[in-house]
Design goal:
This protein is of the alpha/beta class. The chain is about 35% helix and about 15% strand. The strands form 3 sheets. An 8-stranded parallel beta sheet has the order 1-4-5-6-7-8-9-10. Strand 7, helix 6 and strand 8 form a beta-alpha-beta unit. Helix 4 runs parallel beside helix 5 and helix 9 packs across helix 10. The longest helix has 18 residues. The protein is globular and about 50 Å long.
Amino acid sequence: MGDTSTSLRYVDIGINLSDPVFKGNYHGKQVHEDDLDDIIQRARDVGCQKFMVTGSDLEESKHAIDIAQKYPGFCYATVGIHPCQAKLFDSYPGGPLKMLEELKSLALDAKNSGHVVAFGEFGLDYDRLFLSAKEPQLKYFEAQLDLAVETQLPLFLHSRAAHEDFERLLAPRLEKLPKRGLVHSFTGTLEEMEKLVALGLDIGVNGCSLKTEENLEVVKAIPLDRIQIETDGPWCEIRPSHASSKFLQGAPALPKAVKKEKWQKGLMVKGRNEPVAIAQVAHVIAGVKGITVEEVCEAAWKNSTRMFGLGEESY
């Protein structure tokens, strides 16, 4: 198929650019210089034209908006509280209602200025109840769903091992959200995927969605008009041990990766996934579905710009 990377265009709908590792800071220690500009440029060089920077709590949502302001026209933010951070509501100075009020005004202000395109990342995560118990997760998933309806932002959702409760709380509110939303980093079953698609939601696919043969069967079955692609960097890289790696033949090679202590300009860091890898995710999806990368990219581009706008509203 030759090198078509220049003609392909991508949206990375889930990238945690506010994570300190993208500024060379690991576990509170500055290991190498801030290379965020390089990371964004590398992704743009392979055709990644839009980035959705994930907000996961109040502070991170503010950071995501800062990045959207710094890179206007191609970085956009989401605003929300991740289920693993649900416990923050009850310990917030002024209480949970104050936190919800702040979240709402942050979302509305940044929506009006064009920097926020989705409400999230929020949802339920029963895999990691040690981080936030079930009861606050349920309570504040519901409260944030109501905020999303008020702000009329499409949803950027997280669901892990919680499908039944997730669907029960989500379904009744979707009528009031014409743009619906997306379940990102999807790793659920075929049946769960089909139920979410039937609700009118899109499915976000990254390296974590492509680990096992069962994952690949699910991705194969996602309708093309309901798929969106992401890296979820710095996590969810495609590894040689994953079922997806056999589909990487012919994919654009990533820059060389070195240990963070050996960092040099222009190189990737081992274990730090970044948005340039979006091309590999698209390549695997194309291989799994038996279609061209062009078809995957164009479908995903349409789906993402239709749902989130991303400065392409007239599309």
